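Check these lines:
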Amino acid sequence: QVQLVESGGGLVQAGGSLRLSCAASGSIFSINTMGWYRQAPGKQRELVALITGGGSTNYADSVKGRFTISRDNAKNTVYLQMDSLKPEDTAVYYCNTDATIWVISRTRRVDLWGQGTQVTVSS
């Protein structure tokens, strides 16, 4: 069984910071792209940031300069450092990864999602 476990959400005042973590565990052969998405009430899920296996990053325009995505390949973990938070950043944040996992004696590429962690920014 392979799963993503997120942590680090919470309540913070505008201008504050939070750091999200997401660890992949289980029968993992390799982790490819890792990313963070978010979904605010009444809105569609949107991309926040991506990081490839080689370390290339991509950010939503709304978070550029405020959020930083990073990863620790040895720990199969991705992080999202969120600074200068705004009330409009309030959402459930989901971790996502494109991974190759072991299924019995073969590998299979899968798309995994975490359970989500709530981030609330008060004004």
In short: Residues 51 and 57 are 4 Å apart (CA to CA). The two ends are 41 Å apart (CA to CA). The chain has a mean pLDDT of 95.
